[in-house]
Each structure stands twice: as C-alpha cells, then as structure tokens.
Amino acid sequence: MEVSTTGCIVAPRGFQAGSTYCGIKIAKDSLDLGIIFSEYPATGTALFTTNQIYAAPVKLSRKIIQKGRIRAFVVNSGNANACTGDQGYKDAEEMVRIAARYLKISEDELLIASTGIIGRPLPMDKINAGIQAAVNALGSTQAHGNDMARAIMTTDTRQKAVAVRLKINNKDVTVGGIAKGAGMIAPNLATMLCFLTTDVSMPAMLLNECLRNSAESSFNRITIDGHMSTNDTIAIIANGAAGITIPVKSNELQIFQQGLDYVTSYLAKAIVLDGEGATKFVQIDVIGARSRSEATRIARSIADSPLVKTALNGEDPNWGRIVSAAGYAGVELDASKTTLYINNILIFAKGMPTQCDLNVLSTSMKNRDITIRLELGLGDYKDTVWTCDLSHEYVTINAEYHT
Amino acid sequence: MEVSTTGCIVAPRGFQAGSTYCGIKIAKDSLDLGIIFSEYPATGTALFTTNQIYAAPVKLSRKIIQKGRIRAFVVNSGNANACTGDQGYKDAEEMVRIAARYLKISEDELLIASTGIIGRPLPMDKINAGIQAAVNALGSTQAHGNDMARAIMTTDTRQKAVAVRLKINNKDVTVGGIAKGAGMIAPNLATMLCFLTTDVSMPAMLLNECLRNSAESSFNRITIDGHMSTNDTIAIIANGAAGITIPVKSNELQIFQQGLDYVTSYLAKAIVLDGEGATKFVQIDVIGARSRSEATRIARSIADSPLVKTALNGEDPNWGRIVSAAGYAGVELDASKTTLYINNILIFAKGMPTQCDLNVLSTSMKNRDITIRLELGLGDYKDTVWTCDLSHEYVTINAEYHT
Question: Do A119 and B353 lie within an 8 Å CB cutoff?
C-alpha cells in the first residue's frame, strides 16, 4: 500500500477538483468553494450527522443520495446554511440546480455540503459565481487536489488529506480523501466533513457497507469535546476508471476495505490532532468488557471527562480520574478486577494504585502520543477511542468568540 | 420558614458536633475530622454514589444503614480511603469500632464518610486520636456547628451550611444541613458530601423517601463537569427531640418535605457556585418534552457541553451551541418547534435565530445568574439542571495538579 499526502482527492483516475474564493469567508486569500467531479458516471453514498438539529444541505443530500448515482460534491465553507429555516432549504435546492447546470449533469447526481457560520442566509449570488468559477477551475493536478483540501477548511490549522494506492488483481486502485475537523467556526460548531474518491467500480449498496465499516473504525472512534455538529457529512464516489469491479464477499473487497480504512483512520486522527488547543493525541483502549457497547461507553466516559482531559494537558498520569470516569459510565464494574496501564506502565490493579516507577511514567507523559489501556476482566469485548487534551487554548478559543 | 446560615447542623434540638485537626490534612490551621451526634436514639438513612468504583466507607456505610437506626456521622477530610483495597475496608471497620467506643453507642448506630486524596492508606493512628479529640469537643453552640461545616471541606473555598425552622402543628421543627462540593482534591475527585439533621421523629423508611425526593430536586439537578466521585454521600438523622412524629401521607409530611427541599436545594446551589473556577450560576430549564427523562437528557447535554460552558464563561449568548447540544442528546426533536430563551429573551424560534436585541441580551450575560429555557413543543414534561461555566481557572486547577 503506497501512501501519499498530496493531490489526494484527485489521485484516483478520472477525478477533477476545482476551487475558488467567492467572498463567503472574510479572508480574501482563502478558498471558500470547491467541487469534486468524476469524469465518468459513478456510484456514491454518504453518512450524515445524527444531530436532530441538522442543516438544510444535509436534509437535501439525504434525499438525493437515495438513488446511489453520484458524480460530484459541491462544498462551500464560511456559511453552514444551518438554522436558516425554509429559505435555507430553498437555497440548498438552488445550489444543486446551479451546480448541475454548470457541470452539465443531472440534479440527482451531486451532493452538496456547507460549513461555517450558522443562522445566516447563504449568499446565493456569491454561491452562483463561486460554482461557475470552480467548474471553470476543474483539473486533475496535485495543485487542484491540494486547493480542494483547503477550500473546505474553516478554522482548521492545516489541511487533512491522504491517498493510498492498492494492488487488486494486479491492477492499480486508488482511494483518496480530504477532511475538515475540529476547528470551531464563528459563531459555532466543529463540523466534520470528509470526502472520498476511488476508481474502483462498486454498487452503491456495497459502497455504503464499506463506508459504514470504515466510519465505525475511524470517525466514530474520535471525540474532541463530545459536541456533534449540524452539518457532519462523510461521502464517497466510486467511478470505475481503474477498470475493476469489486464483488461482494470477495478477497478484492477485503483489500479495498483495508485501503479505505487506512484513509478514514488517517483523516480521523488528523482531525483529533488539529482539535482546538490540542497538545496530546490520546488512544483509549478498553478491553475485557462484557460487550462492545459497554467498552465503548466506558472509553467515551474517560475520553469526555474534563478532569481526565485537563490531567492529560498537565501531563499528569492521574489514574484516579480515569478509573472513576470508567466507574460512572453506567456499566457494572468490579474494581478488584480492573487494571489500568498508562503508556504501557501498570499503575492500577486489584482496586489499588501499584508501586510503579512514577518518575518513568511522568516522563512518558511528556510525549505527544499517550495510551490509556483499561482492562475490565469481565469478558472478551473491547473498543478504542481517540481524543485530545483540554487546554487553556481551548477555553480561550471558545470563550472569546462573541455571537 | 425561618432560614439561618450559622450553626446549622446543630440547630435542631438534641444534636452536638465536635471537630478537630488530627494531621490528615497538611494545613495545620484547618480541621480534618468531625462528628455529628444525636443525644437521643434516632432513625437515619443515606444515599450513596452510583459510581462503580466506590470507596471503603461507602461500602461499609451501605451495610450499616440497613437497620435504619443512626445517631452519629463520623467524617474525615484529607484522605478518601478510596482505591485502598482490602486494607481500606478493614480501616473503615476499625474507624467505626473506634467511634462507637468513644461515643458509647453501638457499632451499627453510626455512619462514616471520608473525602480527600485517593489510593493512600488511611492513617489510623491519626484517625484514632482525631475521633477521641472530636468526641471530647462535642457541643451544641453555633461555633460547634460552624466548625463541623469546615471540617468536611477539602478545596472548597467557603463553608456551605443552612438551617430552616418550620411550624408543624404549632411546634417548632428544625432541619439543618452542611455540604462540601466541587472543590477538587489531590490527586483527584470532587466528592460531594451532605449531612442533615432534624428533630422530628420519623420511621427510617419514610425518612428515606423524603431524602430521595429532596435529592432528586437538588443534588441530582447539579452538574459541574459530569464527573461523579467514589465517595459521594448524602445522609440524614431524625432524633424526635422536637416531640413530633411525622405520619405518612400527611399535611405534616408535606411541610417537612418543603423544609428539607429548601435545605438540600440551598446546599446543591452552593456547591455549584463554589465549583472550580466557576464565575456563573446557570439554570437550564427544558420544557415541553415527551417525558421527564427526555427533558433531563437534553438539559444535561446542554449543561455538560464544554462549548456551551466556555461560551457562558465568555458571556456570549451562543444559541447555536445550546441548540446543537440539545440536538445530540439522543432525543428526537423538531427544530421548527424548538424555542430558546436566554435570560428570558427569545433568541431562537422556528428553526432560526430571532431578530432580538443582541445588545440587551449581551449585557444581561454579564450577570452572575444566567437562565436558559429551551421549549421543545413536543409534550408536557420538563426538567431543570443547575451548572456553572468552564473557565481558565478550571483548567489551571485541574491541569496543574501532579499525582
């Protein structure tokens, strides 16, 4: 598996990207509208936020995706078209109509996504001009791919993109992806967007299964502050340009899934690392649970505890906060069977702290990457969650914004 | 209802308190062991943490409380006797034996509680000397009551105590209480302790029902950072010294319940106000829900959102963070029916922000007390949660401690 981090979204054959600045964002040296386009008819699928307060583009894209024939993503940043009422939905429909016209494709062959400020009407004149300019800018060079990764950013501090090349039946297959993450956007939320392209051919149903599997082991494993946005969208297009079709329950499918998993995990981790004020990347493994869902609940309880997150920020191996966060996750535990490792050092066993070398452990806390492994001794199930610490910078960013 | 905030725990007739410094805490000018004692045999009941990792005194007190005959609370601060294994439980048993001997009561007539550092053995020689000194110090003056309120504090910045005098059948009845709260304690948790005394007579079962009702409308309504401790305990003694017995389903019971509710609500709010780094007291009302539990889930989702809490710290009326936190609470919502008031100003309706006067709203955010009212328009149920903001001070306190 060859990995590359440039041009990614246009790395698979038959894909183009075009980006522009059309004036939605204030910063004129930025990009705020981008289009990903397949030169060939293609299948597509998407997953959306489960937040009950969801944005107009999510509502519309959920409808469009039903047919499973998608060959373009049209994305603007700077305005989320969320909490915009009936007009917001009409604007989303208009955005689809405009894009279909310029791209010369059917209105049910493209998905839209928006991210940025909420509660303000989408500036449709700018959207119109932006889509036209982005279509005119379409191309397949690395620069086109890199610009697209930047066009979806809001307050992200760096672009998040990766592509992998796989060998399937001696043919080259590529999966590319870009994402934006935990940067907060005025006045609001950390929308997560992820767009993926691949040059295999695949029925939309099977593609959906692959995307769900991948999301489960990547985006569903991360938590910055537990706050889910109104606009979260993960979407993929498969255009078949590599001349290979992936059959169900096949070895080919396994290889493809591994490639897709690599891309989504890479992007999910990149989102955590670019979390607001994050200084640590923390992997939390809960093992020995009675069920996967109990392991998940405990891992998330630890990951979302502000006391655990501030201790991580302070580089303190605070086993008590971790163990007690596990204790209130709503899962029956036996303290005497519970074992905790921080950075692979056993610090809690049989209901008590161990006599481990605290100097060694404290020194290891200075690393950027921290691992927390909690063994429950109750069963055979496990789960993993990735998170970051809670810093002064996080409070500064989020307390100093004014609506 | 007469309210007083001095001497509180000994305000009901027939109660004494005694406190001492016995060397568990480092600060020599502090108090770290206290005893509340009823001069007469009494009934008692208690509620304990639901954290699965619970401390030895909780385990033992859970056992002792079964008989419902309690006339003393023995409490130390500075060491929580949590995560201390078998030895911790033996130490808790020894603490009960020592206290029963000095108080000349039966071992099943007293509850113990501990708060402070976790994972370290209880210094039993100090506990022994401390209990003896506290018994010798027992008395009923206001100073005795005030010292007791201080003896249970850890990093609380102020004592939390209140007493109310009620008229029941023309007799004076008093309910007194003290609590400690959200002060973090090295290396760990914010243990919540609350001790209550009253001079009515009441069967333990009925007293338990009253305490549960009161806790439900007070301590169960507050959240500082969602982190529940290993040692949380709420306990009450009723000694009958006022010469009145409270019958079931009576008018007398209603008056008593109101008095108890006042005391527990006062103490719960005092805990929030003394939360680490707290600068705001925030009441979150969710109304129009399909069920009480759905209202609770949404109120807690808002209260525990770090994005909402940092916005409150920044005095920003950030409706988007509030509405979206409601949206991911796992409750089905209809954005078009959702209405949000901040400080009684309508800021969100019909899925969109309103044209309210943002200057007036922003100015009102400078008050210490903030109200958030979210109307769901789905049913007739409601709930209320009290919380505080998330400040730089919170991060400083919790990141700078080292295990």
Answer: yes
Give tens-digit pLDDT for B104-132: 999 999 999 999 888 999 999 999 999 99
Quick one: tokens of B106?
Answer: 């039966």
Strands B233-238 and B193-198: parallel
Contact at CB, B227 and A324, closer than 8 angstroms: yes
Residue of A nearest to B189 (CA): A321
B186 pLDDT more than 50: no
Contact residues on chain A for B333, CB-CB shorter than 8 A:
52-53
Q: State whether A306 and B394 contact (CB < 8 Å).
A: yes
pTM: 0.89
Identify the closest residue of chain A to B325 by CA–CA distance.
A227
> DSSP character for A228?
P
Residues from chain B that touch A280, judged by Cβ atoms under 8 A, are none
- Inter-chain contact A392–B391, Cβ cutoff 8 Å? no
- 3-state SS assignment for residue B250: coil
CATH 3.40.50.2000 fits A2-273, yes or no: no
Q: Residue A70 phi/psi, 5° resolution? A: -130, 135
Residue A338 to residues A281, A334, A378, B303, B369: CA-CA distances in angstroms? 24, 6, 9, 30, 41
For residues B351 and A83, the answer to whether their CB atoms sit within 8 Å is: yes
- Identify the active-site residue in B191, B198, B264, B296: B191
And the tokens for A40?
């060939």
Give the burial string for A363-383 (b: 16+ CB within 10 Å, else e). Answer: ebbeeeebbbbbbbebeebbb
Q: What is the Cα–Cα distance from B399 to A318, expressed in whole angstroms?
A: 10
Out of A43, A154, A191, A339, which one is annotated catalytic? A191
The rounded distance, in Å, linking the Cα atoms of A115 and A31 is 13
Q: Which two tokens stand for residue A86?
A: 């009936």
* Helix B306-313 with B292-304: angle, nearest 10 deg: 60
Using a CB-CB distance cutoff of 8 angstroms, which residues of chain A are in contact with residue B225? 305-307
Block residue for tokens 């201080």: B150
How far is Cα B341 from Cα A340, in angstroms, rounded to an integer? 44
Distance CA A284, CA B108 (A): 43
- Between CA A362 and CA A315 the distance in angstroms is 7
Chain B residues touching residue A400 (CB < 8 angstroms): 314
Q: What is the Cβ-side half-sphere exposure of residue A362, based on CA atoms within 13 angstroms?
A: 8
Q: How far apart (Å, rounded) are the C-alpha atoms in residues B35 and B204?
A: 21
B351 Cβ neighbours under 8 A, 6+ residues apart: A83, A84, A85, B335, B336, B338
DSSP letter assigned to residue A345: E
Question: What is the pairing mode between strands B352-353 and A339-342?
Answer: unpaired
A182-207: per-residue pLDDT in tens? 654 333 456 899 999 999 999 999 99
The pLDDT tens digits for A112-158 are 999 988 899 999 999 999 999 999 999 999 999 999 999 999 888 89
Per cent of chain B over pLDDT 90 is: 82
Whole-angstrom distance, CA of residue A228 vs CA of residue B185: 31
* B191 belongs to the catalytic site: yes
Q: How far A349 CA sits from the closest chain B CA (Å)?
A: 10
Q: Beta-strand (E) ranges in B5-137?
A: 15-20, 33-38, 43-48, 72-79, 110-117
Cβ distance of B401 and A306 shorter than 8 Å: no
Assess whether pLDDT exceeds 50 at residue A315. Answer: yes
Q: Which of B324, B348, B362 sits opposite A230 (nearest CB)?
A: B324
Residues A403, B348: C-beta atoms closer than 8 Å: no
Domains of chain A by residue range: 2-273, 281-400
Q: Which two tokens stand for residue B122?
A: 């209880």
Query: Which class does domain A281-400 fall in?
Result: alpha beta
Distance CA B57, CA B155 (A): 20
| Amino acid of residue B226 | G
* Closest CB to A351 among B85, B326, B352: B85
